[in-house]
């Protein structure tokens, strides 16, 4: 023994490690069923209605003259574009619903990763993640462990920019330096 007592309750639940979900992850049968269900429902209940609605609105705008039709192809290119945008908008609008379905799965590594908020992790466990040097850093300390000399070099070489308040931007009361004295000075009559 190391001189200390390690106490653990006999019925205590040991938290399972969060699985790494990467590109090589093979979904379970239940997850495949939910993927197919999400794909089918997002198509029929979101993509088709949004694509049809966007095409009808586009055709109405073309008929009223608000949008112009192509001289050679007519309204077809704009209708195809509206259909594609409606399709993708429908798919994207169903993402949250599909995530909730995966979160409700009991024995799913993907559902566990979504529940714990670790689905966006890009590196496997044990790797350091370095924040961008452009991220705001309240404490002034980097989340990536470096030597103090490297921190000093980084502070000296990178310019320090102060944020400019929105009210200091150009508006009507700020002179721009552009004048029309040339146009006023010449008279071509």
TrEMBL record:
- Is the keyword Protein biosynthesis in the record? no
Query: Where mainly found?
Result: other
Bias (Polar residues):
135-146, 168-177
Record localization: Endosome
**Sequence ranges assigned to domain OCIA in this UniProt record:** 24-109
- Respond yes or no to whether keyword Zinc is given for this record: no
- Stretches the record annotates as Disordered: 113-189
> Which Pfam families does the record associate with it?
OCIA
Q: Which UniProt keywords apply?
A: Endosome
Q: Name one GO cellular component term.
A: endosome
Its domain of life reads Eukaryota
| Family per record | Belongs to the OCIAD1 family.
Q: How does it assemble?
A: Interacts with OCIAD2. Interacts with STAT3.
Task: Kindly provide the name given to this protein in its UniProt entry.
Answer: OCIA domain-containing protein 1
User: What species is given as this protein's source?
Assistant: Daubentonia madagascariensis (Aye-aye)
């Amino acid at each position: 023994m190391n001189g200390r007592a390690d106490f653990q309750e006999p019925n205590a639940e040991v938290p399972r490690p969060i699985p790494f979900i990467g590109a090589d992850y093979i979904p379970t049968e239940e997850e495949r069923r939910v993927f197919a269900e999400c794909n089918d429902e997002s198509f029929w209940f979101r993509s088709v209605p949004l694509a049809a609605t966007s095409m009808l609105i586009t055709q109405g705008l073309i008929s009223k003259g608000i949008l112009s039709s192509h001289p050679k192809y007519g309204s077809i290119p704009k209708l195809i574009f509206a259909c594609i945008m409606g399709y993708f908008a429908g798919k994207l609008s169903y993402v949250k619903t599909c995530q909730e379905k995966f979160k409700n799965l009991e024995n799913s590594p993907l559902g566990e990763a979504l529940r714990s908020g670790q689905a966006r992790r890009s590196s496997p466990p044990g790797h350091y993640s370095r924040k961008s040097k452009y991220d705001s850093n309240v404490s002034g300390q980097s989340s990536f462990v470096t030597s103090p000399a490297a921190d000093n070099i980084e502070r000296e070489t990178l310019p320090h920019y102060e944020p400019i308040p929105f009210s200091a931007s150009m508006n009507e009361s700020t002179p721009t330096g552009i004048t029309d004295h040339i146009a006023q000075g010449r008279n071509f009559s």
